[in-house]
Amino acid sequence: MTERESVARTLGVAAIVAVFCSLMVSLAVLWLRPIQLAYLSIERNRAVLEASGLIEPATELTEQQIVDRFLGLDTRIVDLDSGTFSDAVSTTSFDFRAAINDPDLTRPIQDELDIANLGRRPVYLPAYLLRNGSTIEQIVLPIYGQGMWATIHGFISLRADFATVEGVAFYEHGETPGIGDRFLNPEWLAQWRGQPAYDENERVAFRIGADGGRPAGIDAITGATVTTSAIEDLVRYWLGDDGFGPFLAYMRREAPQ
Amino acid sequence: MIQRLIATSRNTLLAPLLDNNPITLQVLGLCSALAVTSSLRPAIFMSVAVISVLVFANVTVSLLRHVIPQSIRLIIEVTLIASAVIVVDEVLKAFVPDVAAILSVFVGLIITNCIVLARVESFAMHHGVWASLLDALGNGLGYAWILLLVGAIRELLGAGSLLGQEILPLAESGGWFEPNQLMLLTPSAFFLLALLVWTIRSLRPVQRSQSDQIRSDNPPSGAAP
Ligand SMILES: Cc1cc2nc3c(=O)[nH]c(=O)nc-3n(C[C@H](O)[C@H](O)[C@H](O)COP(=O)(O)O)c2cc1C
User: Fold this and answer.
1) B36 in a domain, yes or no?
2) Complex-level ipTM
3) Residues 6+ apart with CB under 8 A from A83
4) pLDDT score of B223 more than 50
5) Residue B138 sits in which domain range?
6) What's the CA gap between B218 and B211, in Å, rounded?
């Protein structure tokens, strides 16, 4: 065995290359992460506006225009445990990433309720109210859940009856390009408009695809059944009793201004 | 002596552009060439990404070529390539997020792009840093011009525009140009690449594979030439 091929030498070279590469990748991520997060927060604001129909998908807008329109919405914080608005958290300092990841701000979900595979559910989430004078016209709520490869994030907008879907928009996902990511097709998303979120007995009525004689309000996507059912599940979770269900029931009863 | 050196350097840089092009002659890297060329902008950034990774991988491997033990050669090479790809991917996501969304997994797939591993294994392991740098640039550019050409043709014929700027006035807005939707779909990239390979091989008969030559030397009777 030559010196170059010795075990010590092999381990040494492997270790040095490994350390060098991990340093390079870590430093790059450390430097670039804040820039990426800033962009993501603009995309999140944009998705709120798209879900409510205030802007058409794919309209070209500057960051300033997006932020300006976003600030026209009335942002409130919902306490999911009590199912009411909460003033315990300030809307200006609210950090969405922390709210859904921080162990102190989330609590475990019972396995049988966890249809969106979230593991933990935040206590506080934002709700965006679209107002005309003092009447609420729409409410936009964050929704997310496990897709085929990664978490799918989006917003759903409900009409003033708090039981009918007005629109939806997604801003972060890891579905396969050309297969799973066809759920971003604007024509497919347009089918969500006017779909029932709840039936007359206040049970979650949202469905994707036809089933046992019931026609499809929203078509399932051929070849992307995993993604489509993940989206159906995550919407049903967030409309359900463990998600925004109690809060929306409270809104239907009280509709506080 | 110096002239010989310049001639070899020039050859290292220029040969991969046409005579030894990684896509049209070696037929490597096709997956990304098909996937990211539906318009010009993603093709540009994909080219830059591949060139950066190639240069980084070739230069580092060439620097380490006397140190790397044979037994873990491939692992070391792939580790270096993969790290470079992750950095490039993060840079794209930070500074051109719209393009990063279009390129999506295809940036990550540069790790498995045979062009990169082929250059590192067959060239950088046996050559000095300067030659490896030129080799990386040459092959990167050889990959890039094909990508850019295909991207430009597909965007022009498929959407009547280049880099999003309207070039051919569209029929739907009063012009005369009826865009060809097929150009935006993956098969059109196959057709364009095939036409390119055909053109290049007709102009440079050396590039024809042996079986091609036998066939064209003895054309079956009655077959079109
Ligand atoms: C590499 C690969 C990636 C895939 N990505 C997705 C995906 O992102 N979303 C999805 O729903 N299905 C994806 N599929 C297909 C699923 O495995 C499954 O076949 C499909 O969802 C079934 O749809 P169907 O019932 O309409 O045939 C992928 C398959 C492969 C091989």
Assistant:
1) yes
2) 0.79
3) A245, A246, A247, A249, A250
4) no
5) 25-165+177-212
6) 11
- Specify if B59 maps to a domain: yes
Cα A227 to Cα A145: distance, rounded to the nearest angstrom: 11
Cβ neighbours around A111 below 10 Å, total:
7
B124 in any annotated domain: yes
Contact A29 B104 (CB under 8 A): no
Whether A32 and B97 lie within 8 Å, measured CB to CB: no
- What pLDDT is attached to residue B21? 85
Q: Is residue B3 part of a domain?
A: no
Close Cβ partners of A136 (under 8 Å, ≥ 6 residues apart):
A129, A130, A160, A255, A257
Instruction: Determine phi and psi for A247, rounding to 5 degrees.
Output: -65, -45
A222: Cβ below 6 Å to ligand 1? Answer: yes
CB neighbour list of residue A147: distance below 8 Å, 6 or more residues apart: A173, A174, A175, A180, A226, A227, A230, A231
State residue B4 phi and psi, 5-degree precision: -60, -45
Q: pTM for the full model? A: 0.79
In angstroms, the Cα distances linking A196 to A159, A216, A231, A253, B114 are 10, 12, 16, 18, 50
Count of the separate structural domains present in chain B: 1
Q: What is the tens place of the pLDDT at every residue in B19-54? A: 888 887 777 777 777 888 888 999 999 999 999 999
Cα(A43) to centroid of ligand 1, in Å? 26
